[in-house]
Write a structure and sequence with these properties.
The protein has one domain: TIM Barrel. Helix 2 packs parallel to helix 3. It contains seven helices and nine strands. It has a nine-stranded mixed beta sheet with strand order 3-1-2-4-5-6-7-8-9. Helices cover about 30% and strands about 25% of the residues. This is 7-carboxy-7-deazaguanine synthase.
C-alpha cells in the first residue's frame, strides 16, 4: 500500500492509528465502576502539559489498523466501548461507530471537543482544554462535562464551559492526578458551595488497573 493510499483510508476512517485497546473498569465520570472495552486512538495536538498519555500525541507512532479488525476485537469483550485518545475526533469516527452499533454495542467517547463531531454516540464525555476550545455542536450534545482541576484558575474555566453545555449535561470536577492531594480539598469545598457540580476521581488509578 502506498503512502497516499494509506492516507486516503485514514481520511475515510477505514484505518485508524491504534495506540492500544484493553478491557478494564471505567474509572472516571458517570460510568465509573462499570466494565468497558477501551480503544485508544493516537494523535493529539491539544498539548496539555499535564497529560498522562503524551505517548499518544504523535499518530505516526501508532500503526494504522483496519477499523473492522478493531471492531472484531472489541466485540469479544464488552457491549460498552469507550473511544479515547489522544484526541479521537482528529479522525472520522463514522465507520468505527457504524460498525460497533451494527453489532449492538454502546458507543462512548472521551474528547476535548476541539474537532468536528463525527460518529454516532450513546455517551459523549466532553473534557475541554484551554488551548483548543470545544465546538458549539459538542457543547450541545455532551452528556457529561469533565473539567480537570490543576490550579485555582481551572474553576473559572470550568464555569465558562458549564455555561455552554445543554441543561441535561452532568457536570464533573476532577483533580489532575499529580495535584490531587492539594486540589481535592478545594474541589470538595467548591462542590459543596456549588452543588450543580459533582466530584470525579480517577478511581482506576487507586485500583491500580489500566
Amino acid at each position: 500500500m502506498t503512502r497516499s493510499e494509506r492516507q486516503e483510508l485514514l481520511d475515510k476512517g477505514l484505518l485508524l492509528p491504534l495506540m492500544e485497546e484493553f478491557y478494564t473498569i471505567q474509572g472516571e465520570g458517570y460510568h465509573k465502576g462499570t466494565a468497558a472495552y477501551f480503544i485508544r486512538i493516537g494523535g493529539c495536538d491539544v498539548g496539555c502539559h499535564w497529560c498522562d498519555v503524551k505517548e499518544s500525541w504523535l499518530a505516526e507512532l501508532h500503526p494504522p489498523t483496519e477499523t473492522d479488525k478493531i471492531v472484531a476485537n472489541a466485540e469479544k469483550y464488552s457491549k460498552t466501548i469507550v473511544v479515547t485518545g489522544g484526541e479521537p475526533l482528529m479522525w472520522d469516527m463514522t465507520q468505527l461507530t457504524n460498525q460497533l452499533k451494527a453489532r449492538g454495542m454502546q458507543t462512548h467517547i472521551e474528547t476535548s471537543g476541539a474537532y468536528k463531531l463525527t460518529g454516532t454516540w450513546d455517551w459523549i464525555c466532553l473534557s475541554p482544554k484551554k488551548l483548543k476550545l470545544p465546538t458549539e455542536e459538542v457543547f450541545k450534545k455532551a452528556h457529561e462535562l469533565k473539567c480537570i482541576i490543576f490550579n485555582k484558575d481551572d474553576f473559572r474555566f470550568a464555569e465558562e464551559q458549564a455555561a455552554q453545555v445543554n441543561k441535561d449535561c452532568i457536570l464533573y470536577l476532577q483533580p489532575e492526578w499529580s495535584k490531587r492531594e492539594k486540589m481535592v480539598p478545594e474541589i470538595v469545598d467548591y462542590v459543596m458551595a456549588n452543588p450543580k457540580w459533582k466530584v470525579s476521581l480517577q478511581t482506576h488509578k487507586y485500583l491500580n488497573i489500566p
